[in-house]
Design goal:
Number of domains: 2
Largest sheet: 5 strands, antiparallel
Radius of gyration: 33 Å
CATH superfamily of the largest domain: Ribosomal protein L10, N-terminal RNA-binding domain
Function: Forms part of the ribosomal stalk, playing a central role in the interaction of the ribosome with GTP-bound translation factors.
Order of helices and strands: HEHEHEHEEHH
Low-confidence stretches: 166-171
Keywords: Ribonucleoprotein, Ribosomal protein, RNA-binding, rRNA-binding
CATH architecture of the largest domain: 2-Layer Sandwich
Family: Belongs to the universal ribosomal protein uL10 family.
Distance between the termini: 120 Å
GO cellular component, one term: ribosome
Number of helices: 6
Pfam families: Ribosomal_L10
Strand order of the largest sheet: 2-3-1-4-5
């Protein structure tokens, strides 16, 4: 018989799965409360890192349509529910795992697809969304800058050519003006 606490825990976990675009399952055995707090802080505001009960999480994952964690729910388990930039969160998790060997990244899912721990590490190796957008902006800006430099060079060349032609045009007009005054 399900207790109200277990039912609410399952409902909360289902909501977390549905609201997140990615999740990473970890084993935190041996980490202190201070280390877990540091990990949560490093993940940022868009990521919820929760220590979960395996049986209840399995039920919630099935209800939410997530099958990535079926065989991995054993031992002390925590999940990072990522609502923002998955690359930044995966990067934070893998960097923390490198400095704290007790944190083990087991598996994950990203946009509805299951990921192995190696794929989570590959996701972490990507550049952040902001960096990728800045790179695209630079690529898009380059042709506009080149066009502006070409237009400026053409304008300067016409000014030089126009400046050299102006005295010649004035010389031609001067005799005509003198002839008109004489007549």
């Amino acid at each position: 018989m399900a207790t109200p606490n277990k039912v609410s825990a399952v409902e909360e976990t289902i909501a977390d799965f549905k609201e997140s675009n990615a999740a990473v399952l970890t084993e935190y055995r041996g980490l202190s409360v201070a280390q877990l707090k540091e990990l949560r802080r490093s993940l940022g505001a868009d990521t919820k890192y929760s220590v979960v009960k395996n049986t209840l999480t399995g039920i919630a994952a099935k209800e939410a349509g997530v099958d990535a964690f079926d065989d991995q729910l054993a031992g002390p388990t925590a999940i990072a529910f990522i609502r923002g930039d998955a690359v930044a969160a995966a990067k934070s998790l893998t960097e923390f795992a490198k400095s704290n060997e007790k944190l083990v990244v087991k598996t994950g899912y990203f946009e509805g697809k299951a990921m192995t721990s190696a794929e989570v590490a590959a996701l972490a190796a990507l550049e952040s969304r902001e960096h990728q957008l800045a790179r695209v902006a630079g690529v898009l800006k380059a042709p506009a800058g080149a066009a502006a430099r070409i237009i400026e060079a053409l304008r300067a060349k016409r000014e030089e050519e126009g400046g050299a032609e102006a005295p010649a045009a004035q010389v031609e007009e001067a005799p005509a003006a003198d002839a008109a005054e004489e007549a």
